[in-house]
């Protein structure tokens, strides 16, 4: 067994109605003035105002920034950071999907240490601790409430940059399944598949360890057993709970094991064509799983068991059956059949492939990949 290490240094609270514990956690945090970062849909629904009410209940000052888009940009980070500095905030409540959390991590970084988020791209560039983040996910997808990454789109390069540091981990995560009940079916599907892919890729990663495997397997059990019923009925609290905790476990898994070609290739798709991250991942997944069959070391059968409807491994199982099952799952959830259906055009494939090769995830994909391989996979996914 190779060497590995891990830590889970966060405070995670799960339960129906657990958002009501926000005032208590804010007091524990020592914050005096916080910025709520969220998106326009949640603001329009009145959900952000509810969060603001809990903040005020704690006696702490607050303001809100709700202009976070689906693939948040450097410009959005700059605007949110300007507001953070202006109000002299000392903490953030990140409320929503992965996008507000990515922005929150970037804001506390640039607000404390200055410059642009582009200057911190990569790993080991964060100088030290940042202000408190309390993350409250309203989707079961990114697991960003427990990850060490901030992913921001730089439109000047049509590139999704990643910043990595354990200093960016939110101090608290509140997992309240009741917050998932108003998700549209399409969002539930794309986010749910994204969470499943986090677990699947970390499970197959060449950087996997017994710890990341444990997190990934539990995530796959929870997500594979509940994604269909959750997309069918988002008010199913039991299914929502399983998806939310599964997403969290998957986030912990890939924080330590990284991911693979799916994520390396999906980031350029989102950067060039603004395709939702989960949708891009879901379309690419069966193509990459088929490509990686050659490197399978017996884990495809276990993945099939987690993902299939009957959760059984057929006696005649062969690796290609996992790809077939993923295609069936995508179709049942309404995922587009190819990248062209999502608005992607082939003329950008050389540029997207070049950007994908810059990702560290390529290095831990179970099957080694060259630039020509990535271009071929993009064409196949069209």
From TrEMBL:
Residues 189-382 form the Fe-containing alcohol dehydrogenase-like C-terminal domain. CDD domains: Fe-ADH. Residues 9-177 form the Alcohol dehydrogenase iron-type/glycerol dehydrogenase GldA domain. InterPro entries: ADH_Fe/GldA, ADH_Fe_C, ADH_Fe_CS, Alcohol_dehydrogenase_Fe. Keywords: Oxidoreductase. PANTHER family: ALCOHOL DEHYDROGENASE (PTHR11496), HYDROXYACID-OXOACID TRANSHYDROGENASE, MITOCHONDRIAL (PTHR11496:SF83). This is Iron-containing alcohol dehydrogenase. The lineage of its organism: Bacteria, Bacillati, Bacillota, Clostridia, Lachnospirales.
């Amino acid at each position: 067994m190779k060497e590995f290490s891990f830590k889970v240094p966060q405070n995670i609270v799960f339960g129906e109605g657990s958002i009501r514990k926000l005032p208590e956690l804010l007091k524990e945090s020592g914050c005096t003035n916080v910025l709520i970062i969220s998106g326009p849909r949640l603001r329009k629904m009145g959900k952000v105002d509810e969060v603001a009410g809990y903040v005020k209940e704690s006696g702490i000052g607050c303001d809100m920034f709700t202009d976070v888009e689906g693939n948040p940009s450097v410009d959005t980070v700059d605007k949110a950071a300007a507001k953070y500095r202006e109000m002299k905030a000392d903490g953030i409540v990140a409320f929503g999907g992965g996008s507000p959390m990515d922005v929150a991590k970037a804001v506390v970084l640039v607000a404390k240490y200055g410059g642009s988020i582009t200057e911190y791209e990569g790993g080991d560039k964060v100088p030290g601790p940042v202000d408190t983040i309390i993350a409250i996910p309203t989707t079961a997808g990114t697991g960003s409430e427990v990850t060490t990454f901030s992913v921001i789109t730089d439109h000047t390069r049509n590139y999704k940059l990643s910043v990595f540091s354990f200093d960016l981990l939110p101090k608290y995560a509140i997992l309240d399944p009741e917050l998932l009940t108003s998700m549209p079916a399409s969002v539930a599907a794309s986010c749910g598949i994204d969470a499943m892919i986090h677990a699947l890729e970390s499970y197959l990663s060449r950087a996997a360890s017994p710890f990341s495997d444990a997190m990934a397997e539990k995530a796959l059990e929870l997500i594979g057993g509940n994604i269909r019923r959750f997309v069918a009925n988002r008010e199913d609290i039991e299914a929502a709970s399983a998806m939310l905790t599964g997403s969290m476990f998957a986030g912990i898994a890939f924080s330590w094991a990284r991911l693979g070609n799916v994520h390396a290739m999906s980031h350029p798709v989102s950067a060039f064509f603004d395709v939702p991250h989960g949708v891009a991942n879901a379309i690419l997944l069966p193509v990459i799983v088929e490509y990686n069959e050659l490197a399978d070391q017996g884990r495809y059968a276990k993945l099939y068991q987690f993902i299939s409807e009957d959760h059984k491994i057929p006696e005649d199982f062969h690796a290609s059956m996992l790809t077939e099952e993923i295609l069936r799952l995508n179709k049942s959830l309404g995922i587009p059949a190819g990248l062209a259906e999502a608005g992607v055009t082939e003329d950008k494939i050389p540029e997207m492939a070049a950007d994908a090769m810059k990702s560290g995830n390529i290095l831990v994909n179970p099957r080694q990949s060259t630039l020509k391989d990535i271009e071929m996979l993009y064409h196949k996914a069209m």
